[in-house]
């Protein structure tokens, strides 16, 4: 296997702020690599460096075998990029954009026409191709953006938060497309996301980034296994949090939880639940609600950073 | 640069230029002020100051022959700045990143935008000429050559201020910042031989207008409307244009290359 | 609307309160006042250096300098910047819903319009005083004396009421800030097509007719005589009367447009 995306001590500061504070990673050909982190963790900054849009202030990065600074033009030839928010000129039509994109990548006109038609067909935009992008829905814009980034048949595809703000149906359609690209064409995909579910669904390997640093890396299964015990979450009267916590700590390691709730990595699993409840009640803590979850990426994230990922709960089911 | 790369860059520049046109087609209203403003200018300047040609120095009896090239250049300059509007939009909404991801030369993006701005200059210039012919009895003693020098000066001035706009937009990254360029353009045209000949001016204005390269360009643009086109009026204008394009072009290119590694 | 003396006093207090609000907005946007001062001054500076020879043209009024001639034009140009503010602010209030809240409150209708206009008129008087002061420093004498100067500043304030009323009609009709702002170039052009920068006597043809029948010319000419000739009660009356009449017409128009809209809505 060849490494197609590689970073060593990659850094980017803006003034005093270190947006990316030295990351090392290696993505192999044909992988779907998920870059998971909350807003402002440094995901986009890292992607902008890999895609030659931003100069690193330290370390090095190579994409498709080329250095992102000294061989930027070669890198650009080999990558497709769909940036955050699908930033496309609203005054142009889908067809016009596809044609412009083809010229930007030096594709001859007849071939551009053929490939552009196929791509629009594939993302289901043939009917809307002559409409102005300003009239597209969010999902259509993402799909067009994806088509644009594929016009020159890149080996490596960077997707920066491809489904943020999309409705569930559009999200599923986009996932399907990304999977197909990876399986049929062997395209390496580097995907950033703040959705655990998305990383879990798509990525073969995941890196968790927080405050500019990689805090965990591995396959979803490896990561979950590393957290160990399942999480027991118990809703209680917020006044009893301290007592409840001291009871729970007898059964395993404390896990972060929101207000009015306590959580523990339960050693021994389901068999111990009844015992926990009894102990709480004898300590005078009333159990309002409880749930037991096998470890999720959310737990991995919480264990790595001490915080829950924003919006994680709504994708938990 | 090889022949192949050159032809690829030319195609990119042309595509960027075409894209500007496509945007106008998408929202034609955007171009209206560019045409209306210079037309209103030529009518109101000529109407208000028509009696000035009774004083020696104008070299024409018809104020329209004096004001039309001025208004045309003014229109061209604002058309040129307007051409930067799409770049400002791109930078604001993020589409510019997609353009920067081209593996080819980034200079092609700049050349395309400048070309598009130069083309935009033809609209106001033509509108001013038509109105002046229609209601002002404009004459063109310099003939075809006089027209060509006007259009050349108009297109080049659009390029100069397009490049100035790009310098600002690449740096400040907002549409609003183009206001700065508009003020600069207005001042540069205002403090020149736009409305009266140099011999009318006194004090600081005389000095400033004489040193202002825009005065040379105005004389270049206007000569065919006052008499024959002559080399001694042409070359200072061409030199001024070349110098302004070189300087603004240098800074615009530097600004663009500072945006990415 | 309430009637009687008490009602009038209430309306007065409400007008004042709303005027203060719009004045505060203006103060916050001090930067936006700058172009209105810098631009006319720059124009006056350039014109006084390039039109010196025009003073010798037969038909040009007897003046000390072009600067004295252009003073009224500069003042009116200065106050016309931001003259539409009363309208754009109203349109903004309509756009963001604040207007509906005002309408739902017991505040009478007319103060809502007048308050805003009052605010811009105060700003206009300030701008006019500033322009006059700069011209005085550069050696212009206002022959009409202190009384003449006061009339000139009051005229500027009245004219802004007229422009503001027009802008408010536009605001209520279109409910869009952009549309109201678009009226500014029109006002700018109508100032240019008047006697503001050159005497109408030296114009010719249809353009001269247009300039002579422009209400801005009717306002500027008597103001100019107060500057270059001296005090005259009839000039003072005319310079105040024309913008006052225009203001009454446009403000009444605005009130009527508002009432029609309220009835329809």
Task: Explain what this protein looks like in three dimensions.
The complex is a heterotrimer of chains A (317), B (261) and C (265). Chain A contains 11 helices and 14 strands. Chain A has helices at 43-50, 72-78, 94-104, 109-122, 138-150, 168-185, 196-202, 220-227, 241-248, 273-282, 297-305, and strands at 3-14, 17-28, 32-36, 58-63, 66-67, 79-82, 156-160, 188-193, 205-210, 213-218, 231-235, 252-255, 261-266, 289-293. In chain A, helix 4 packs antiparallel against helix 5 (138-150). The longest helix of chain A has 18 residues, at 168-185. By secondary structure, chain B is an all-alpha fold. The longest helix of chain B has 31 residues, at 63-93. Chain B is elongated, with a radius of gyration of 19 Å. The two termini of chain B are 19 Å apart. Chain C is mainly α. Chain C has one domain (2-53, 61-264). Chain C is built from 12 helices and no strands. Chain C has helices spanning 4-28, 30-50, 66-80, 85-96, 98-104, 109-137, 145-174, 177-181, 183-192, 205-212, 215-228, 233-264. Chains A and B meet through helix 2 and helix 3 of A and helix 1, helix 3 and helix 4 of B.
Give the arrangement of secondary structure elements.
The complex is a heterotrimer of chains A (317), B (261) and C (265).
Chain A: E1 3-14, E2 17-28, E3 32-36, H1 43-50, E4 58-63, E5 66-67, H2 72-78, E6 79-82, H3 94-104, H4 109-122, H5 138-150, E7 156-160, H6 168-185, E8 188-193, H7 196-202, E9 205-210, E10 213-218, H8 220-227, E11 231-235, H9 241-248, E12 252-255, E13 261-266, H10 273-282, E14 289-293, H11 297-305
Helix pairs in contact in A: 3-4, 3-5, 4-5, 8-11
Chain B: H1 3-26, H2 32-49, H3 63-93, H4 95-100, H5 107-120, H6 122-136, H7 143-172, H8 178-190, H9 203-211, H10 213-226, H11 231-259
Chain C: H1 4-28, H2 30-50, H3 66-80, H4 85-96, H5 98-104, H6 109-137, H7 145-174, H8 177-181, H9 183-192, H10 205-212, H11 215-228, H12 233-264
Helix pairs in contact in C: 1-6, 2-3, 3-6, 3-7, 3-9, 3-11, 4-6, 4-7, 6-7, 6-12, 7-11, 7-12, 11-12
């Amino acid at each position: 296997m060849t490494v197609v995306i590689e970073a060593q001590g990659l850094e980017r500061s803006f003034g005093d702020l270190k947006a990316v504070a030295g990351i090392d990673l290696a993505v192999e050909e044909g992988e779907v690599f998920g870059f998971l982190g909350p807003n402002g963790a440094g995901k986009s900054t890292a992607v902008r460096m890999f895609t030659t849009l931003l100069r690193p202030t330290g370390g090095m990065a190579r994409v498709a075998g080329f250095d992102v600074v000294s061989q930027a033009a070669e890198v650009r030839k080999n990558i497709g990029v769909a940036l955050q928010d699908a930033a496309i000129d609203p005054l142009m039509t889908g067809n016009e954009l596809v044609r412009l994109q083809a010229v930007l990548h030096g594709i001859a006109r007849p071939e551009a026409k053929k490939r552009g038609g196929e791509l629009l067909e594939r993302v289901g935009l043939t009917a809307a191709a002559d409409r102005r992008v300003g009239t597209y829905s969010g999902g259509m814009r993402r799909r067009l953006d994806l088509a644009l980034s594929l016009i020159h048949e890149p080996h490596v595809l960077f997707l920066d938060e491809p489904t943020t703000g999309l409705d569930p149906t559009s999200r599923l359609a986009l996932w399907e497309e990304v999977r197909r690209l990876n399986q049929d064409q062997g395209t390496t995909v580097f995907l950033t996301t703040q959705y655990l579910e998305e990383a879990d669904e798509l990525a073969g390997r995941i890196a968790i980034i927080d405050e500019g640093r990689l805090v965990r890396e591995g396959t979803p299964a490896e990561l979950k296994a590393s957290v160990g015990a399942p999480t027991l979450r118990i809703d209680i009267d917020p006044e009893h949090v301290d007592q409840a916590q001291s009871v729970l700590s007898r059964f395993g390691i404390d896990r972060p939880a929101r207000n009015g709730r306590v959580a523990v990595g339960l050693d021994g699993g389901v068999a111990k639940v009844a015992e926990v409840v009894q102990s709480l009640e004898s300590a005078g803590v009333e159990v309002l609600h409880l749930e037991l979850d096998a470890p999720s990426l959310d737990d991995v994230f919480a264990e790595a950073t001490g915080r829950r990922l924003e919006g994680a709960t709504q994708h938990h089911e | 640069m090889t022949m192949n790369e050159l032809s690829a860059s030319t195609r990119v520049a042309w595509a960027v230029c075409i894209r500007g046109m496509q945007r106008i087609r998408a929202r034609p209203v955007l171009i209206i002020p560019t045409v209306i403003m210079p037309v209103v200018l030529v009518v109101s300047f000529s109407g208000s100051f028509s009696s000035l040609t009774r004083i020696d120095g104008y070299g024409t009896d018809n104020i329209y022959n004096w004001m039309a090239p001025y208004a045309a250049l003014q229109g061209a300059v604002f058309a040129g700045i307007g051409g930067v509007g799409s770049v400002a939009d791109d930078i604001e909404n993020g589409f510019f990143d997609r353009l920067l991801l081209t593996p080819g030369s980034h200079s092609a993006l700049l050349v395309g935008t400048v070309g598009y701005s130069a083309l935009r200059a033809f609209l106001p210039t033509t509108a001013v000429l038509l109105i002046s012919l229609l209601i002002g009895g404009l004459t063109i003693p310099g003939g075809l050559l006089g027209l060509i020098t006007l259009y050349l000066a108009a297109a080049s001035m659009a390029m100069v201020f397009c490049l100035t706009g790009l310098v600002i937009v690449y740096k400040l990254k907002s549409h609003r910042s183009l206001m700065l360029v508009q003020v600069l353009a207005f001042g540069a045209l205002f403090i020149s031989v736009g409305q009266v000949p140099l011999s009318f001016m006194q004090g600081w204005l005389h000095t400033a207008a004489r040193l202002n390269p825009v005065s040379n360009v105005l004389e270049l643009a206007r000569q065919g409307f006052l008499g024959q086109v002559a080399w001694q009026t042409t070359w200072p204008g061409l030199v001024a244009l070349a110098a302004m394009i070189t300087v603004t072009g240098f800074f615009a290119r530097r600004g663009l290359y500072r945006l990415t590694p | 609307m309430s009637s009687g003396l008490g009602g009038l006093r209430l309306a007065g207090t409400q007008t004042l309160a709303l005027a203060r609000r719009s004045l505060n907005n203006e103060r916050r946007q001090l930067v936006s006042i700058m172009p209105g001062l810098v631009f006319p001054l720059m124009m006056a500076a350039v014109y006084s250096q390039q039109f010196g020879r025009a003073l010798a043209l037969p038909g040009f009024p007897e003046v000390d300098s072009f600067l004295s001639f252009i003073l009224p034009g500069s003042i009116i140009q200065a106050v016309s910047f931001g003259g539409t503010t009363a309208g754009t602010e109203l349109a903004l209030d309509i756009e963001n819903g604040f207007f509906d809240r005002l309408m739902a409150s017991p505040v009478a209708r007319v103060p809502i319009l007048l308050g805003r206009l009052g605010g811009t008129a105060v700003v206009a008087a300030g701008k006019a005083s500033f322009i006059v002061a700069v011209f005085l420093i550069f050696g212009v004498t206002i022959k009409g004396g202190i009384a003449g100067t006061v009339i000139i500043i009051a005229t500027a304030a009245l004219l802004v009421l007229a422009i503001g009323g027009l802008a408010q009609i536009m605001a209520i009709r279109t409910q869009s800030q952009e549309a109201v702002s678009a009226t500014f170039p029109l006002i700018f052009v109508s100032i240019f097509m008047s006697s503001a920068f050159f005497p109408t006597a030296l114009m010719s043809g249809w353009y001269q007719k247009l300039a002579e029948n422009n209400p801005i010319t009717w306002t500027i000419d008597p103001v100019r005589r107060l500057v270059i000739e001296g005090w005259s009660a009839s000039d003072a009356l005319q310079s105040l009367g024309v913008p006052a009449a225009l203001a009454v017409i446009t403000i009444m128009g605005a009130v009527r447009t508002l009432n029609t809209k309220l009835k329809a809505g």
